[in-house]
Amino acid sequence: MQEILKTIVHASLGAAFLTKDKIEEIKNNLLERGRLSQEEGKQFVADLVHRSEKAKEELDQWIEKKVAERIDRLNLASKDEIAALRAAIEDLRQDIAGREGH
Fold it and tell me: Is the pLDDT of residue 94 over 90?
């Protein structure tokens, strides 16, 4: 029964968007209806919180990967590349200023 409820919750709400408060609310509703015991309720919350956090991490990783792919595909300069170019320009400015001063 508990596994079926977890599956339903995951499918209908999307684990990546469940907050601890929402999970507690679902647990309380199930407890009130007699669908879960107190111990099952605690396990239910712990499991869903863990799955929700894992899903959020996986979503973040997926988004970062997709953004990196798009940046690469668009051939955009990275933050590090821009910083290196700024440093090189500053070095050239100092070199030119030093030569003009002599």
Answer: yes
- Please state the φ and ψ torsions of residue 4, each to the nearest 5 degrees: -65, -45
Cβ distance 38 to 52 under 8 Å?
no
What are the residues whose beta carbons fall under 8 Å from the beta carbon of 46, sequence distance 6 or more?
Answer: none
Query: How is residue 61 written in tokens?
Result: 């990783």
- Closest residue by Cα to residue 29 from 51, 53, 13: 13
What backbone torsions phi and psi does residue 14 show, to the nearest 5 degrees?
80, 110
* Cβ proximity of 52 and 18 under 8 Å: yes
Per-residue confidence (pLDDT) for residue 86, from 0 to 100: 98
Summarize pLDDT for 21-63 with one digit per residue, the tens.
777 787 777 777 777 777 777 787 788 778 878 887 888 888 8
Other Cβ atoms less than 10 A from the Cβ of 5: the count is 17
| Cα torsion angle, 17, 52, 6, 27, sign | negative
